[in-house]
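Lab notebook page, bench 4
Experiment: in silico fold of construct C2
Operator: M.H.
Input chain length: 345 residues
Purpose: comparison with the prior construct
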Amino acid sequence: MPSYDGQPLPGMQHKYRETALFFPSQGQTCHAYCTFCFRWPQFVGLEGKKFAMREGELLRGYLSEHHEISDILFTGGDPLIMKTKTLREYIEPLTKPDAGHNLRTVRIGSKAIAYWPHRFLYDDDAEDLLDLFREVTNAGMQLALMAHFNHPAELRTPVSLEAVRRIRETGAQIRTQTPLLNHINADSQLLADMWAEQTQAGCVPYYLFVARDTGAKRYFELPLVDCQEIFRQAYNKVSGVSRTVRGPSMSAGPGKVQVLGVSEFRGEKLIVLRFLQGRDPDWVGKPFFAKYSDTASWLDELEPAEGDEFFFEQRLRELLAEEGSPWSREETRIQLLDTAAAGGG
């Protein structure tokens, strides 16, 4: 857990060097509650598992001491459930010339375009929200709305398309992401249509995630090799301008791990993976191999192709120990599934 001036910051995560996550306490609800959501502790009474922080001043203090952070992601819940006046209290001070940080990008994770596009058009503070976006971009920073979509139908309504248009007029960029969900969008043509239509509307397809371990996991989950094949087929059906999307990606304890495909070495089938983000930046981009499995649906269900551990596990234990958590090897395997520790990338 990050700390500032000797005070723990339970509403922040700083898992990756360049990116910090901030969970404003007023943004811990959503426009809708998705059955597959991995942030379920935010919405129920398990206080020990929640991430939330009320003080924007502590956020600014932390950023002023950590100039390696270029991106701040406001997440939740859904930050856009807040009134603009409240959201402004967190974001506006970051746009000031004397703010003392090294931020280049302000990100906001939200499903509002899909579930409540009126937030940008007809809510009583919609214009103020768009003005806040303009203030960020006019200050020379990028405002990236990380828009959650699960199906192409969510962007086919006139009101959603108009919301996209109005957001883009402020200079903000919309990047889209979705989990791959059995029974919902596990179809290559559906994904290709969704990415192509998002691109046509001016959005940037960004991530396709592997569904995380929630109470409904068995209904939504797919084997990793199936996820990769669906992604590969969908990727082949879109033009280069839509091939900005990365996936299928697992946001696991060590970092964001992409399933690159299945290969064969000396007659043995292997699953090829790489880090898109990592607790140790040196892991990023390095391919590694797991024994083939047609049932594994998460990183901790894979076995290293050689040896007892993946290349990063010893370093992961060291990093966790530095954070005050002396993990054993067995506990580190559990940490691979600790999606609550996953951060934006």
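Observations: The chain has a mean pLDDT of 90. The first strand starts at residue 3 and ends at 4.
Next step: discuss at group meeting.
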